[in-house]
Write a structure and sequence with these properties.
mainly alpha; 3-stranded antiparallel β-sheet; 30 helices; 20 strands; globular
C-alpha cells in the first residue's frame, strides 16, 4: 500500500464525486496513474467504463480517516504535501505494526516519522510519566491494510522489469528507474522499504515468488499474471485439464504454466506458490542465526583433531583436546579472536582491563600466556580457558552444528560436526573467520515477509559480513538464512544471557531501555546477549528496536525464573538431552505436572542421553540446582523447557 500526494488527492476527488452521485471520470491519460495504482490497492474500483472509478469500502474508510485527521490538525491537506511525501508506504505499515507489537509504544527511532504523518503522540499518565505511542488513526490504517486485499496484475513490460531487477536487500538508490513501476509494485505489495526512511528496498515475500514465476515462464501475452490465470490453474490442480475452457487452456499453455497434457510446469508450480501467498497471506516468522569467532575456530579445531585421529586413534576431539589445539597455535594467528577473548577476559575482570589486554596481546605469544597473565594462581587459568571453550561448544550444539557423543573406542565424550556444521566450516574456509551476527542474517530472512525490509544498519552488517552484495544475498547469506530455518535449536543460556532475559518483559521494552538496566561498560555484552537470544528464537528485535519475547522465550523465562543467576550455563543442550531421556523412560503425572523415574531406569536414561556417566552426573547436578529435576522426577519447570524446545523449532 502506498499513498502519496497524488493518491490522496485522487481519493478525495473520488469521494467528492460520490457525494454528487457521480463516478470519478479520468479523461486525461496523464492523470490516470494514481487511480490505476489505487485500484491495484483495492481502494478504488472501475465503474461502468474503463475511465470511471469509484471508492471501495476500504477506500472510503481511508478517506474518512484522512479527512478527520486534517480537521483535527494532525496532518496538512494533501494539496500542501511535498510530491514525494509518503503518507503511507510499506515502511509506515512496518512502523505501525512494530508499535502494535510493542504494546502501542513507538520507541525513539520511529516516533518522529509517525508523528509527521499524524499517527503518533506523546501521552502522560500519572505516576508513570510520558509515553510515545501510536494513536487510533494508525491502528485504523493498519486494519485497512490487513483487510484490503490487493489485486495482482502483471503486464509483460512490468514482468520484464521484475525479472531483471536485483531481489534485494539493497540500497534504494540501486533500484532500477522505470517510470512508476516501483509504485505499481508497492501497490500490489511486491516490494518493501526499510524503517524509517526507506533507505533499503527488497522484493517482499510475494514479490520474490512473482519474480520466480516471471523468470521461468514464457511471457508471450500482454498480461502475463493475473487472478484469472491463477484461478484457471487451480482448476487444473483440482479437476484436471477437462475443467478448463478452450481459451483458458490456450492461455496457460502459451505462458508455459502447463503442457498440452495438462501437466503443471515449473512456472505453474511457482504461480501456485504466488497464489498461496496472495490469497492466504501466511508468511514464515522471522528467524535468524549467529556465530561468534571462537565458535568458528572450534569448528576448524574439531576437524583438525579428527585428522590427527587418523594417525593416532588415541587423539579424539574431547573438550580438553580442543583446548589443547587452541594452545598449540601462536597467538598471532588468532587476530580474529582478539575481540572475543578481550570481551571474555574483560567481563571476568570486571571491565577494568581493556588497555592492559591490548598491550598484552602485542607482547605475549600464546593463548596460554594470555590466560596465565590474568589468572596466575594454580590451574585457574586453564579452568577459565576450558570454561570459555565449553561455553562455545554448548552454543555450537544448540545450533545443531556439532553433536557430542561417546566415542566407541575410547569411551570419551567427543564432538563431531553435523552436516550443518560441515557446510558452515566450508563457508569459513572460503570466506574466512568472521562474526555472523543475528542482525545481518535477519537482514535477509525478513525479506520473505509481507512488508518487511531490513533497517539500514542491519543491511550494513550483512554487507560487512559478506552475506549481501550487489543487490542479492551472497552464497554465504543464503547458507545462513537457510540454517536459520533448518537447524533444530536447543535452549542454551550463559549466566549473563540469563541476567539479560530476566530484565526483558513480554513486550514494550526497547533496546536503549535494556542498555540502561546495566552498567554502561556492559552495553557491548548486552548487545551480544541479545544477538544470541534472538538467534535462538527466544526474542525478536523489531524494526523500531522494540524487544518482544517469542512464545518459546516466554516459556523459557518462566521456567528459568527461579534459577540462581550464579550458575554458569543454567540451561544448555546437554541438560536438555538429559531431560528428554528422563521423560522418555519416566511416567508423566499430569495433575502434578511432573515426570517420575524409577531408580532402575536411570541407567537407561544415561544410555538414551548419549552421554558418558561422568558428564551425565555433572550436568544433572546443575539441572537439580536450577530446579528442573528433583531426586526422582522432572519438575514443571523442566517440562516447560522441553515444551519450549518444540516452540523454538516450529
Amino acid at each position: 500500500m502506498v499513498i502519496r500526494k497524488e493518491h490522496a488527492l485522487a481519493l478525495l476527488n473520488a469521494k467528492s464525486q460520490e457525494e454528487k452521485g457521480l463516478a470519478c471520470q479520468i479523461t486525461i491519460k496523464a492523470e490516470e496513474d494514481p487511480y490505476v495504482e489505487l485500484e491495484l490497492q483495492n481502494l478504488l474500483e472501475q465503474g461502468n467504463s474503463p475511465i470511471e472509478y469509484t471508492l471501495t469500502y476500504w477506500g472510503r474508510n481511508l478517506v474518512y480517516i484522512l479527512e478527520e485527521m486534517i480537521k483535527k490538525g494532525l496532518i496538512k491537506h494533501p494539496s500542501e504535501w511535498d510530491d514525494r511525501f509518503r503518507w503511507i508506504g510499506s515502511e509506515v505499515i512496518a512502523m505501525i505494526e512494530a508499535a502494535i507489537l510493542s504494546g502501542g509504544l513507538t520507541g525513539e527511532e520511529t516516533f518522529e516519522p509517525l508523528k509527521q504523518r499524524g499517527f503518533a503522540q506523546e501521552v502522560h499518565e500519572e505516576k508513570k510519566g510520558w509515553f510515545k505511542e501510536i494513536n487510533e488513526y494508525a491502528k485504523a490504517i493498519y486494519d485497512i491494510y490487513t483487510k484490503a486485499k490487493p489485486r495482482l496484475v502483471i503486464s509483460k513490460e512490468l514482468g520484464s522489469y521484475i525479472a531483471s531487477m536485483p531481489t534485494g536487500p539493497a540500497e534504494t538508490k540501486m533500484l532500477p528507474e522505470h517510470g512508476r513501476f516501483p509504485l505499481v509494485l508497492e501497490s500490489m505489495r511486491l516490494i518493501s522499504f526499510s524503517v524509517p526512511n526507506s533507505d533499503v528496498y527488497t522484493l517482499s515475500g510475494l514479490g520474490q515468488a512473482v519474480q520466480k514465476v516471471v523468470q521461468t515462464m514464457a511471457p508471450s501475452l500482454e498480461t502475463i499474471i493475473n487472478e484469472d490465470y491463477m484461478y484457471a490453474l487451480l482448476k487444473v490442480l483440482d479437476s484436471g485439464m477437462d475443467a478448463l475452457t478452450p481459451q483458458e487452456a490456450e492461455v496457460l499453455e502459451e505462458l508455459a504454466f502447463i503442457d498440452a497434457e495438462g501437466n503443471i510446469l515449473p512456472a505453474g508450480e511457482a504461480l501456485l506458490e504466488v497464489y498461496k501467498l496472495w490469497s492466504e497471506r501466511e508468511y514464515r516468522p522471522v528467524k535468524t542465526f549467529n556465530l561468534e569467532t571462537l565458535d568458528e575456530e572450534l569448528l576448524i579445531g574439531i576437524e583438525k583433531v579428527w585428522e590427527k585421529n587418523k594417525t593416532n586413534p588415541e587423539i579424539v576431539p574431547t573438550a580438553e583436546e580442543i583446548v589443547h589445539y587452541l594452545m598449540e597455535k601462536p597467538l598471532k594467528e588468532y587476530k580474529h579472536l582478539i575481540e572475543f577473548y578481550g570481551r571474555m577476559i574483560n567481563q571476568a575482570m570486571g571491565y577494568q582491563k581493556k588497555e592492559e589486554l591490548k598491550k598484552k596481546w602485542a607482547e605475549l605469544f600464546t593463548i596460554e600466556d594470555l590466560f596465565k597473565h590474568f589468572w596466575e594462581k594454580g590451574n585457574q587459568w586453564y579452568e577459565k580457558l576450558y570454561d570459555t571453550v565449553k561455553e562455545s561448544l554448548y552454543s555450537l550444539e544448540a545450533f545443531e552444528l556439532v553433536k557430542s557423543e561417546i566415542d566407541e573406542k575410547t569411551g570419551k565424550t567427543v564432538y563431531k560436526l553435523t552436516n550443518h556444521g560441515k557446510r558452515v566450516l566450508q563457508d569459513i574456509k572460503e570466506k574466512g573467520v568472521r562474526e555472523i551476527t543475528s542482525t545481518a542474517v535477519k537482514a535477509i530472512s525478513i525479506t520473505k515477509t509481507e512488508f518487511g525490509a531490513p533497517n539500514y544498519h542491519w543491511y550494513e552488517e550483512a554487507v560487512n559480513e559478506h552475506l549481501v552484495g550487489g543487490g542479492y544475498p551472497t552464497k554465504s547469506g543464503q547458507l545462513y538464512e537457510e540454517l536459520a530455518y533448518s537447524v533444530r535449536r536447543l535452549p542454551n543460556l550463559t549466566r549473563f544471557e540469563l541476567m539479560v532475559l530476566h530484565k526483558i518483559p513480554e513486550y514494550g521494552m526497547f533496546l536503549d531501555e535494556l542498555f540502561k538496566e546495566f552498567d554502561e561498560t556492559l552495553k557491548e555484552e548486552v548487545q551480544y546477549a541479545v544477538n544470541k537470544l534472538e538467534a535462538r528464537y527466544i526474542l525478536d528485535v523489531l524494526p523500531n528496536n522494540g524487544i518482544r519475547l517469542t512464545e518459546a522465550g516466554k516459556l523459557l523465562k518462566k521456567a528459568l525464573s527461579g534459577v540462581p543467576e550464579g550458575i554458569a550455563n543454567p540451561i544448555n543442550p546437554v541438560i536438555v538431552r538429559i531431560l528428554q531421556a528422563i521423560k522418555q523412560v519416566g511416567n508423566l503425572y499430569v495433575k502434578e505436572k511432573r515426570v517420575r523415574i524409577l531408580p532402575k531406569n536411570w541407567e537407561e536414561a544415561i544410555k538414551l542421553s548419549g552421554l558418558d556417566k561422568e558428564t551425565f552426573e555433572k550436568e544433572i547436578a546443575v539441572a537439580r540446582l536450577a530446579g528442573f529435576i528433583g531426586k526422582t522426577s522432572i519438575h514443571e519447570s523442566g517440562l516447560e523447557v522441553l515444551e519450549a524446545v518444540e516452540l523454538m523449532n516450529e
